[in-house]
């Protein structure tokens, strides 16, 4: 019955059009009434405690770094470097989009920001070259969702705080799965585009590639600096976020000189607005998370799926299927914040490594960004590329399937996550 109260209150509030953060608070109030321990101070105290977390400081700084990169010319130079290397082959702009998405993912950790930047730069070029634009838009959307998986990832930060799991280990564990997602897109694009007639750019000379590399050197250095600093223990993820924001600001203003002082207000305002949304969601979710624990909802769900607890692989398939279903209806952050306190006790009870589960959980939620009807990244690319949503959904299908295949492989072969993680830990 407690599970029913939880679901009816949460889904009912959402059905009335209430913002997710307020729906989570309503859900918490409903659980308190059901448990007979209603106290308004619980809501206030848990919201303050939920937001008062040093690790969450990484969120605004990584968001700010992403905004500064786009405005300061770092994103553009990354795309230009990839174009110089790959633009001459058949479907080259598609491969450029994938490589650029991988590099941008290692800079900002924001799927929406990376997708908007790539679509704004590449879609006009693809349109002029005769590409199938809905399919191209789908590819860019599928590339954009690698951002929450390859570190630095805002998704890993939010999950790590909610689940009390090491964010540094989540970052290191996300490297190989993120690269696998990129490789899956390369294979899918090679298959679907092989018969298309499209223009290719002239082959760049070694001198031109060298110039593109030198021009984009400072942008390309950023992921090496961030990941290297975290790997070798020089900086924590929070300190890396500050470093990324300061670096992007300095490079954009004083090296590339595309970031003008007059632009700073708009950049900081955009980052602040996005941060406010994320932080309020986290604060509200941790209220409901506390009530979920008090109501023993994870224990009730464990009883329902007890027959699966003896087989980790089947249990992971069941949990990931649940996340896929929820991800089609909810955005990334709400899904992470709602399901983490429900699923983590089950994961620990079954003996599944929390870091491994966290990686697959975030991949699954990232895939939810390109699944209708919500599909925030689909909306972003549809708006930027000026392509109807229905066409983008059709175009993204081959790449959605490719990403789901990666998820299935990671469930069947957990060593694909754990072995590279052990190596990156230096063990």
UniProtKB/TrEMBL annotation:
Please provide, alphabetically and separated by semicolons, the GO molecular function terms listed in this UniProt record. transmembrane transporter activity
Report the superkingdom from the record: Bacteria
Kindly list the residue ranges recorded as spanning the membrane: 47-66, 78-98, 104-124, 136-163, 169-192, 212-234, 240-256, 263-293, 313-343, 355-381, 401-424
- Pfam families to which the protein is assigned, alphabetical: DctM
Signal peptide from the UniProt entry: none
Keyword list, A-Z: Cell inner membrane, Cell membrane, Membrane, Transmembrane, Transmembrane helix, Transport
State any GO CC term: plasma membrane
Q: Where's it found, cell-wise?
A: Cell inner membrane
TRAP C4-dicarboxylate transport system permease DctM subunit domain location is: 7-415
The membrane topology term of the UniProt record is: Multi-pass membrane protein
Q: Which family does it belong to?
A: Belongs to the TRAP transporter large permease family.
Q: What does this protein do?
A: Part of the tripartite ATP-independent periplasmic (TRAP) transport system.
PANTHER family, sorted:
2,3-DIKETO-L-GULONATE TRAP TRANSPORTER LARGE PERMEASE PROTEIN YIAN (PTHR33362:SF4), SIALIC ACID TRAP TRANSPORTER PERMEASE PROTEIN SIAT-RELATED (PTHR33362)
The UniProt subunit note reads as follows: The complex comprises the extracytoplasmic solute receptor protein and the two transmembrane proteins.
Q: What is this protein called?
A: TRAP transporter large permease protein
**The species this protein was found in:** Microvirga lotononidis
């Amino acid at each position: 019955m407690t599970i029913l109260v939880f679901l009816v209150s949460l889904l009912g509030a959402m059905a009335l059009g209430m913002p997710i953060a307020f729906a989570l608070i309503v859900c918490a109030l409903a659980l308190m009434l059901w448990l007979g321990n209603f106290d308004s101070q619980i809501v206030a105290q848990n919201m303050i405690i939920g937001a008062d977390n040093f690790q969450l400081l990484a969120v605004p700084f990584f968001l700010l770094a992403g905004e500064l990169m786009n405005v300061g010319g770092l994103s553009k130079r990354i795309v230009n470097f990839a174009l110089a290397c790959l633009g001459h082959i058949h479907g080259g702009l598609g491969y450029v989009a994938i490589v650029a998405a991988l590099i941008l993912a290692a800079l900002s950790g924001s799927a929406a920001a990376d997708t908007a930047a790539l679509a704004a730069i590449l879609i006009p070029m693809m349109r002029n070259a005769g590409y199938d634009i809905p399919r191209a838009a789908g590819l860019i959307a599928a590339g954009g969702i690698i951002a929450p998986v390859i570190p630095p990832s805002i998704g890993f930060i939010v999950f790590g705080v909610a689940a009390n799991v090491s964010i540094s280990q989540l970052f290191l564990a996300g490297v190989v799965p993120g690269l696998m997602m990129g490789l899956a897109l390369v294979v899918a694009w090679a298959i679907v585009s092989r018969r298309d007639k499209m223009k290719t750019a002239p082959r760049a000379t070694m001198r031109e590639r060298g110039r593109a590399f030198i021009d984009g050197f400072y942008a390309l250095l950023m992921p090496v600096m961030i990941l290297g600093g975290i790997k070798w223990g020089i900086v924590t993820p929070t300190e890396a976020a500050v470093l990324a924001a300061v670096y992007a600001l300095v490079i954009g203003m004083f090296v590339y000189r595309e970031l003008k002082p007059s632009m700073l207000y708009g950049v900081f305002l955009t980052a602040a607005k996005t941060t406010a949304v994320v932080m309020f969601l986290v604060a509200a979710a941790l209220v409901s998370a506390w009530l979920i624990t008090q109501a023993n909802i994870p224990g009730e769900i464990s009883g329902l799926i007890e027959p699966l607890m003896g087989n980790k692989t089947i249990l992971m398939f069941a949990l990931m299927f649940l996340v896929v279903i929820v991800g089609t209806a909810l955005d990334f952050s709400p899904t992470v914040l709602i399901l983490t306190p429900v699923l983590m006790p089950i994961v620990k009870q079954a003996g599944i490594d929390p870091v491994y589960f966290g990686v697959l959980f975030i991949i699954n939620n990232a895939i939810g960004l390109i699944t209708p009807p919500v599909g925030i990244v689909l909306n972003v690319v549809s708006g930027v590329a000026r392509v109807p949503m229905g066409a983008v959904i059709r175009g993204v299908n081959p790449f959605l399937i490719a990403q789901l295949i990666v998820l299935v492989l990671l469930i069947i072969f957990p060593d694909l996550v754990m072995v590279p993680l052990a190596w990156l830990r230096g063990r």
